[in-house]
Design a protein that fits this description.
The structure is a single chain. 6% of the residues lie in helices and 52% in strands. By secondary structure, it is mainly β. It folds into three domains: 197 residues, Jelly Rolls, CATH 2.60.120; 54 residues, no CATH class; 381 residues, Methylamine Dehydrogenase, Chain H, CATH 2.130.10. Strands 4, 9, 10, 11, 12, 17 and 18 form a seven-stranded mixed sheet that branches. A six-stranded antiparallel sheet has the order 1-19-6-13-14-15. Strands 20-21-22-23 form a four-stranded antiparallel sheet. The longest helix has 19 residues. The radius of gyration is 29 Å and the shape is elongated.
Length: 708
C-alpha cells in the first residue's frame, strides 16, 4: 500500500543519524588509507544548520521553522531571497581555501509548487510555476560576482553548476508535494544522482571539477543562486555537504533485508525488517520494528495490533490520526469596488511581485494619459473607451493596483512564456454591433512593475481567450461571438513565434455565436471545446470538440447544448469530466418562452473505450454563466454562478455542489449573493477563498471558507 507524503519526512532523521555515524567512521584515523586526506576539514557539514544559526536571531528570519502535518515533522522554509542566509566559506575550509575535487551533497526536501505564502514585505502572496529556477544553495564570490558551486531545480531537472559548467539531471520528479531524498556526488569523471535511494542517474563529465578551486572570500547562500533564481519552494529537512565521499553508499542501505521471526508487519509489496531482539521500547517490555531508506513511501499493516504503521525516525510507529479540513460555509470577506461591473475575473501570481486579480470590467477612461502611460509601445489600434481593473493582494486584502485599457472586456487569461508574464484580454467592443475591434496582450514590465501593451489581435465581439501548450509550442485561441450582423464568425488560433517574439495567426475555426473556448488534455491528446450559444433563431445548438491532429485542430465530435456559455474540464480519481453551463432556453424547443433562464446544465464523463463523453449528471441552474471546479483537501466541489436575470428571488442562489461518489454531485450550499458571472477559487497559505465578478453593479466580492 503506497502512501503519499504522510510518512516519509521523519524517517529521514534516523537515516541521517546513520549517515553521520558512517561519515564519522570513514573520516576517522582508521580510514586514512581508504581516502586521501582532503584539503578541507574531513567532517560532514550541515549547511542548513550553519545558515540557521546565523538567521535565527534576526527579527525578519528568512529560514522559517514549519510543521508539516502530513508527515508529522518539523522542517525549514525559505521565505525570501533578499538578505538570504549566508556564512563565510572560510569557516569551513580552514586548512586551505580550496574546494575538494570529490564531494557529495545529501538533502531531504518536499517541494510545494502550489504554495502561496507571504514573500516578506507587503504581505503579497506568490506562487511559482515549474519553469522557475529554484535555488537550494550556492557558493558565490560576492566581489567577483561569480558562482563556484550551485544546486538548482528547474521543472523536472536537477542542476549542478560549477566552474561555469552546468550538469543537468532530467526526469527528477520533485514537484509532487511529497518528501524525497536526493544524493548528488561528484568524483573522477562522473556525477552521480540518486533519488529516494532507488532512481539512479550517472553523467560523464567532460570538464572535470577544478583541482584548485579557490574559495577564499566566498560565501555559502541558502536559496539564492543568482538574480534570476527564486528560493526553493517547499520544506527542507537536511542539507549536508560531505567532502571526499559518496553520501549514497552511506545513507542508502542495500537490499537483503533479513526477515526475523515474529515479524507482524505486512504490505502488498514486501515484508519489513523486525528489530530481532533489540529493545527500542521505552517501557522495556516489547520490541519495536525498525524501518530503513527502502521503506520510504510505504506504509504497513500490523497484523497483531490491527493498526496501520508509518515509518517515523527509523521506527515503524502507529500512524497518527489526521484531521481533514471539511468545508462548513463561506462568509463575505471583502467587497471590491469594480467600476462598470465585471463579467470575468482571473487570479494569478507573479514571483517576487505578488498575487493579483484582474476583472474584465467596463469602466470609463478618466483621461487619455491613462492610456498613454500603459501603451508605451504606441501600438496601433482602436483607442479604447473603457478600462479594466487589476487588484493586488496586500496586507490581507485586495487593493486597486492598475487599470488597463479595454473595450467592453469579456475575459482575461494570464500566462507565462519563459521568464515573461502576460495577461490577455478578449474585448467584445463597446459598440455592441459586431464591428471590428482589437483584443490585447499585456506584458509585465519588471522595472516599472506594471503591465504594458505587448501585442494587439484583430477580433470581432471576442468573448473568450485561452492559452495552452502542445509539446513546448505556445498557442492562444480567441473566439468571436459575431462578425457584423452575422453570428457566423471565424475564431482564431495563434502560435507563438519564438524568433519574432509575437503570436501569429495559424488557423481559423468556423463558429456560431461562440461564447467560450476551453483547452484540455486527455491521455496525451490536446482538445479544444467551443460553446456555441445562439445562431439567431435558437439556443439549441451543438458545441464542437476539436482535437489536435497533424499540426492543426480538426473536428472530433459535438455535444448538444442549450445556450452554452461555459465549459469546465476536471478529473476525479483518474476519470475525466466536462461540465457545460446552459444559460438560456430560447427557440422552437421552447416556443412558449417558459422559464427561459431555468435550464439543466450537464456533466459529461469520458468513456475511454468508446472515446466519447457521455451524459453523467444533470444539474438544475438559473441564470448560470460560469462553473468552477475546486478542491479543499480531498473534497471536490463545483460552484455555479447566478446572474439573477429573473424577478423571482427564489431563483437567485449561487449553488455549491460537493462530489459524493456514487451520489454524484450533491448541492450542499446555497449562497445568498449579489449577481455572479464568474467564480475563481484560490488560497493564501492555509486559507481558501472564492472571488466572483458581479456583472450588474460595481460591487464584486471575496468569500472566505470556514471549516468544521
Amino acid at each position: 500500500m503506497c502512501a503519499t507524503s504522510y510518512q516519509v519526512a521523519n524517517s529521514f532523521s534516523g537515516m541521517t543519524s546513520l549517515l553521520w555515524w558512517f561519515a564519522s567512521f570513514i573520516f576517522s584515523s582508521h580510514a586514512e588509507n581508504i581516502f586521501p586526506r582532503p584539503c578541507t576539514d574531513p567532517h560532514p557539514i550541515d549547511i542548513l544548520l550553519k545558515g540557521l544559526r546565523l538567521d535565527v536571531h534576526r527579527q525578519d528570519a528568512i529560514l522559517k521553522r514549519s510543521f508539516d502535518p502530513e508527515s508529522q515533522a518539523f522542517a525549514y522554509r525559505l521565505t525570501k531571497t533578499k538578505n538570504a542566509p549566508n556564512f563565510s566559506a572560510d569557516k569551513i575550509f580552514t586548512k586551505c581555501a580550496f574546494f575538494p575535487e570529490e564531494f557529495s551533497f545529501f538533502m531531504t526536501l518536499k517541494s510545494e509548487p502550489d504554495n502561496l505564502s507571504s514573500s516578506g514585505g507587503g504581505g503579497s502572496g506568490r506562487s511559482l510555476s515549474n519553469w522557475d529556477r529554484q535555488c537550494i544553495f550556492s557558493l558565490r564570490h560576492p566581489t567577483k560576482k561569480t558562482t563556484l558551486v550551485a544546486l538548482e531545480i528547474v521543472d523536472k531537472r536537477f542542476i549542478l553548476t560549477y566552474n561555469n559548467t552546468r550538469k543537468r539531471f532530467a526526469d527528477v520528479s520533485l514537484s509532487d508535494s511529497k518528501w524525497h531524498s536526493v544524493s548528488l556526488s561528484l568524483s573522477g569523471g562522473g556525477a552521480h544522482l540518486v533519488l529516494d535511494c532507488s532512481e539512479e542517474q550517472h553523467r560523464k563529465i567532460k570538464r572535470h571539477f577544478p583541482a584548485m578551486l579557490d574559495t577564499k572570500g566566498s560565501i555559502f547562500q541558502l536559496g539564492k543562486c543568482s538574480r534570476k533564481t527564486f528560493p526553493f519552494q517547499g520544506l527542507i529537512k537536511e542539507l549536508l555537504f560531505l567532502p571526499g565521499t559518496d553520501a549514497t553508499s552511506l545513507a542508502c542501505i542495500q537490499n537483503g533485508v533479513r526477515i526475523e521471526q515474529g515479524n507482524t508487519l505486512v504490505s502488498p509489496n514486501r515484508h519489513f525488517n523486525y528489530a530481532g531482539g533489540r529493545n527500542h521500547a521505552k517501557d522495556g517490555n516489547s520490541n519495536e520494528q525498525i524501518c530503513t531508506w527502502k521503506d520510504m513511501g510505504n506504509i504497513a499493516y500490523d497484523l497483531k495490533k490491527n493498526v496501520i504503521k508509518v515509518c517515523l525516525n527509523g521506527i515503524w510507529r502507529d500512524a497518527p490520526e489526521r484531521h481533514q479540513r471539511r468545508l462548513d460555509y463561506f462568509e463575505t470577506y471583502q467587497d471590491l469596488f469594480v467600476e462598470g461591473g465585471a463579467v470575468d475575473v482571473e487570479v494569478f501570481s507573479i514571483p517576487r511581485e505578488g498575487f493579483f486579480a484582474a476583472f474584465a470590467s467596463n469602466a470609463p477612461v478618466e483621461n487619455k494619459e491613462t492610456i498613454n502611460r500603459t501603451n508605451r509601445s504606441r501600438t496601433k489600434g482602436n483607442t479604447p473607451s473603457r478600462t479594466s481593473a487589476i487588484y493586488k493582494w496586500m496586507n490581507g486584502k485586495f487593493m486597486l493596483y492598475q487599470t488597463l485599457p479595454s473595450n467592453a472586456a469579456h475575459s482575461f487569461k494570464s500566462f507565462r512564456i519563459g521568464q515573461q508574464f502576460f495577461l490577455a484580454v478578449a474585448n467584445y467592443g463597446a459598440a455592441m454591433d459586431g464591428s471590428e475591434t482589437t483584443s490585447t496582450i499585456f506584458r509585465w514590465n519588471m522595472e516599472r512593475q506594471k503591465f504594458q501593451i505587448f501585442q494587439q489581435l484583430q477580433t470581432w465581439t471576442a468573448t473568450d481567450i485561452e492559452f495552452f501548450e502542445i509539446k513546448g509550442t505556445k498557442f492562444i485561441a480567441v473566439v468571436n461571438y459575431a462578425k457584423g450582423s452575422s453570428l457566423l464568425a471565424t475564431s482564431a488560433i495563434y502560435r507563438w513565434n519564438r524568433k519574432l517574439r509575437r503570436f501569429q495567426k495559424t488557423q481559423q475555426l468556423k463558429t456560431t455565436g461562440a461564447r467560450d473556448i476551453t483547452a484540455f488534455q486527455v491521455l496525451g491528446y490536446q482538445f479544444l471545446i467551443v460553446s456555441q450559444a445562439f445562431n439567431g433563431r435558437t439556443t439549441f445548438l451543438e458545441s464542437v470538440v476539436f482535437i489536435w491532429h497533424d499540426g492543426k485542430f480538426v473536428e472530433f465530435t459535438s455535444i448538444e447544448t442549450i445556450g452554452a456559455v461555459d465549459w469546465e474540464y476536471f478529473s476525479i480519481n483518474n476519470d475525466h469530466y466536462l461540465a457545460v453551463v446552459n444559460s438560456y432556453n430560447f427557440g422552437p424547443q421552447n416556443h412558449q418562452k417558459a422559464k427561459t433562464y431555468s435550464t439543466q446544465s450537464t456533466i459529461y464523463k469520458l468513456n475511454i473505450h468508446k472515446k466519447a463523453f457521455e451524459r453523467f449528471q444533470n444539474v438544475p441552474t438559473n441564470s448560470a454563466i460560469d462553473c468552477e471546479f475546486f478542491t479543499i483537501g480531498e473534497q471536490k466541489y463545483l460552484v455555479l454562478s447566478n446572474a439573477q436575470n429573473t424577478a423571482d428571488p427564489r431563483e437567485h442562489d449561487s449553488v455549491i455542489y460537493r462530489w459524493q461518489g456514487v451520489d454524484q454531485f450533491v448541492a450542499v450550499h446555497r449562497m445568498k449573493l449579489l449577481p455572479t458571472a464568474d467564480f475563481e477559487a484560490f488560497n493564501i497559505g492555509p486559507d481558501i477563498y472564492l472571488i466572483y465578478a458581479n456583472p450588474k453593479s460595481d460591487i464584486s466580492q471575496v468569500l472566505k471558507a470556514k471549516f468544521i
